[in-house]
Design goal:
The chain is of the alpha+beta class. The protein has two domains: 5-185, 2-Layer Sandwich (Phosphorylase Kinase, domain 1), CATH 3.30.200.20; 190-300, Transferase(Phosphotransferase) domain 1 (Transferase(Phosphotransferase), domain 1), CATH 1.10.510. It is 39% helix and 19% strand. It has nine helices and 13 strands. The strands form four sheets. Strands 4-5-6-8-7 form a five-stranded antiparallel sheet, sandwiched between helices. A three-stranded antiparallel sheet has the order 1-3-2. A hairpin with a 3-residue loop joins strand 2 and strand 3. Helix 8 crosses helix 9 (282-291).
Length: 302
């Protein structure tokens, strides 16, 4: 599990961030940044580089490996620190609180500001990248892609989707994005997977989720990873979150991906509420969402 780096931010000095930024730059070209390149990348002299390495290693912001050379790379904590510093400089947040959710591909924390926010760090690519590439050493070539790149692109995709969809679609309001991290509105509610609906509520909540999917499609996006785990249910409606895999509606596979999302949503209701959920013509329902003619899931009962 990646540790909450907010606890050490007050201990870090500007020169520590120079080193972290320099290694971030070097990781664009190589998985492990050679020690002799660090003065050039960080614009620190050799003696200061050694001191800063020790400070950052002690705080688990860096990893070191000796291969044909001694190399360094950021840990996710190091990457988190760089994003947090940028958010602080922009006055987007002024503190980080308790974890709200920790998963395989993201960690979400409370973020303190003038109103409750959520801070989401994308973790995509780290585990898979290490597993697939563990035997390969990188050199500076055009084929190199690090987990930093994968996580940053996921954050950029999600933030772009949120900016496009909000407020027409019930998604968290986007506030700021830097590197692999997003600051967004904190949403209250219960995951659809954990909520217990009364029989008379089942169809209504299912309709609400499908309506948000239809509105999102009309606004230009398919979620492409819909499930009962990325929908919050509250007294005033539903909120759909986790959009890093979203694809544009004009994508050649968007209709297929929307159909898969429809199947995932209906499958949840059919499994958890079999008596209240009728059998649905999934193809007809998907076509209705694409065409903007959806009114209620009951209309597509077989």
């Amino acid at each position: 599990m990646v540790q909450n780096v907010a606890t050490v931010m007050a201990e870090l000095e500007p020169e520590d961030f120079h080193l972290l930024s320099g290694i971030e730059h070097g990781m664009r070209f190589s998985r492990w940044v050679a020690e002799e390149k660090l003065p050039e990348f960080s614009r620190l002299d050799g003696e200061d580089v050694d001191y800063r390495i020790d400070r950052c290693m002690d705080r688990e912001l860096l990893e070191r490996k000796t291969i044909q050379y001694t190399g360094y790379r950021l840990t996710f904590e190091g990457y988190d620190a760089l994003a947090l510093r940028t958010f602080s400089e922009r006055d987007s947040i002024d503190g980080v609180g308790a974890p709200l959710g920790v998963g395989k591909e993201s960690d979400v924390y409370e973020a303190r500001s003038f109103q409750p926010f959520a801070l989401k760090y994308h973790r995509e690519g780290y585990t898979n990248f290490r597993e697939v590439q563990k035997e390969r050493e990188y050199t500076a070539d055009k084929e190199h892609r690090s987990w930093l790149y994968t996580a940053r692109k996921a954050a950029e995709r999600e933030y772009d989707a949120l900016e496009t969809l909000y407020p027409e679609v019930s998604v968290p309001r986007p506030v700021d994005q830097n590197r692999h991290a997003i600051v967004m509105e904190r949403i209250d509610g219960v995951e659809l997977s954990r909520v217990k609906l009364e029989p008379e509520q089942v169809i209504g909540v299912c309709d609400l989720v499908l309506e948000e999917m239809a509105t999102a499609y009309d606004a230009g996006y398919v979620h492409a990873d819909m499930s009962e785990y990325n929908v919050f249910v509250a007294s005033d409606g539903v909120t759909v979150f986790d959009w890093p895999q979203a694809v544009p509606a004009e994508h050649e596979n968007s209709r297929e991906l929307l159909g898969r999302d429809v199947g995932n949503v209906l499958g949840h209701f059919e499994r958890k509420y079999p008596r209240e959920t009728p059998e649905i013509d999934r193809e007809a329902l998907t076509d209705a969402l694409v065409g903007g003619s959806f009114e209620s899931v009951r209309a597509f009962s077989e």
